[in-house]
UniProtKB/TrEMBL annotation:
<dbReference type="InterPro" id="IPR050300">
    <property type="entry name" value="GDXG_lipolytic_enzyme"/>
</dbReference>
<dbReference type="InterPro" id="IPR013094">
    <property type="entry name" value="AB_hydrolase_3"/>
</dbReference>
<dbReference type="GO" id="GO:0016787">
    <property type="term" value="F:hydrolase activity"/>
</dbReference>
<dbReference type="Pfam" id="PF07859">
    <property type="entry name" value="Abhydrolase_3"/>
</dbReference>
<feature type="domain" description="Alpha/beta hydrolase fold-3">
    <location>
        <begin position="92"/>
        <end position="300"/>
    </location>
</feature>
<keyword id="KW-0378">Hydrolase</keyword>
<protein>
    <recommendedName>
        <fullName>Alpha/beta hydrolase fold-3 domain-containing protein</fullName>
    </recommendedName>
</protein>
<dbReference type="InterPro" id="IPR029058">
    <property type="entry name" value="AB_hydrolase_fold"/>
</dbReference>
Length: 337
């Protein structure tokens, strides 16, 4: 509960005590605050009495506070691998336009991956904009992933560090893939849901795909959604850590699955990245797979059924499960649910 209270109070602290935040962000952030509180509550409260995960705090190597993560560990059945056998690691990062959030935003995904693949699954929480701009969130995620790839974590959680996968939603795709670049060859697979891969372009300049609403009711919030990278954009235009679209294929996870809604302003940049990666990996045994979902909006796997197709949502989750299981099996881990 303290995590929820802290996350929800951060906007108020930012709005009324942090002078460097421009007014153009402040009033928009204030307008977004009720929705921000509602999102956090909806993601956190279902887990408030749950014992499905444990919470840990990881030291920061960048001078920040400890980084909160939640960890799901598999429940073994009679046909499961031996409990003494080192287990795969899956590391997931929540989205939310790089705004402050909770590790529980990816708790449903983390629990599903843990249950269906047998991997120890970690969801990380990072500091967000507009109080914290680039590279703060990236540093937090880098530190958390580096810890779980350490010998200390391998021993503590009985991990197979040769069998590591990552995932992310929206901004979390950017953060997870960026962190993966610090461990070239160490991340075996990645799943991208609606990924933000090109921050050289502000939201209001991204090309609108066919079927995109003529009038965007939340357009006034776009400067807030851009407040993490926007103020520093000219300085980091050529930075592949921020702009994943610039990263060479050999810097990214070996195998990649992209879940892409077609009614999303990110469609063009995701498609460009996918096409380039396919060309760069052609003739190799690497996998770059993309599934496009007609008529679906940004974040569709998490949206309620009244605005997304439940069949397509479940198809996306199922494809994630199968992709990660196949990656783990290449590493010698076969899990029976």
């Amino acid at each position: 509960m303290l995590s929820l209270i802290s996350a929800n109070l951060q906007p108020i602290f930012t709005l009324f005590t942090l002078r460097p935040v421009p007014f153009t962000y402040r009033w928009r952030y204030l307008a977004f605050t009720p929705g921000f509180w509602l999102i956090n509550a909806m993601k956190y409260l279902p887990w408030i009495f749950s014992s499905a995960y444990r919470t840990y705090h990881i030291p920061s190597t960048h001078g920040g506070p400890q980084i909160r993560v939640i960890v799901f560990e598999p429940v073994y059945g009679p046909s499961s691998p031996s409990k003494s056998k080192p287990r795969p690691l899956h590391f997931t990062v929540h989205g939310g336009a790089f705004l402050p959030g909770l590790a529980e935003q990816n708790a449903d995904l983390a629990q599903r991956v843990c249950k269906n693949t047998g991997a120890v699954t970690v969801s990380v929480q990072y500091r967000g904009a507009p109080r914290y701009t680039y590279p703060t969130a990236h540093d937090d995620v880098d530190d958390a992933l580096a810890y779980f790839l350490s010998e200390e974590a391998a021993k503590k959680f009985n991990l197979d560090l040769n069998n590591v996968t990552v995932s992310g939603l929206s901004a979390g795709v950017n953060l997870s893939l960026s962190a993966s670049m610090n461990h070239i060859g160490g991340i075996k697979a990645a799943v991208s849901f609606c990924g933000v891969v090109d921050l050289r372009i502000p939201p209001w300049e991204k090309p609108k795909p066919s079927g995109f609403p003529a009038s965007n009711p939340i357009a006034f919030l776009e400067p807030v959604f851009d407040s993490y990278a926007g103020p520093l954009r000219p300085k980091y235009t050529d930075d592949p850590r921020l702009n994943i679209i610039l990263a060479a294929a050999d810097k990214l996870p070996r195998d990649m699955l992209f879940i892409v809604p077609e009614v999303d302003i990110l469609l063009r940049e995701e498609t460009d990245l996918i096409e380039r990666l396919k060309k760069e990996t052609e003739g190799t045994d690497r996998i770059v797979e993309a599934v496009f979902y007609e008529g679906e909006l940004h974040g569709f796997p998490e949206l309620p059924g009244i605005v997304s197709d439940p069949v397509k949502c479940e198809d996306a989750w199922r494809r994630m499960d199968e992709f990660l299981r196949q990656s783990n099996e290449k590493g010698g881990w076969k899990w029976t649910v």
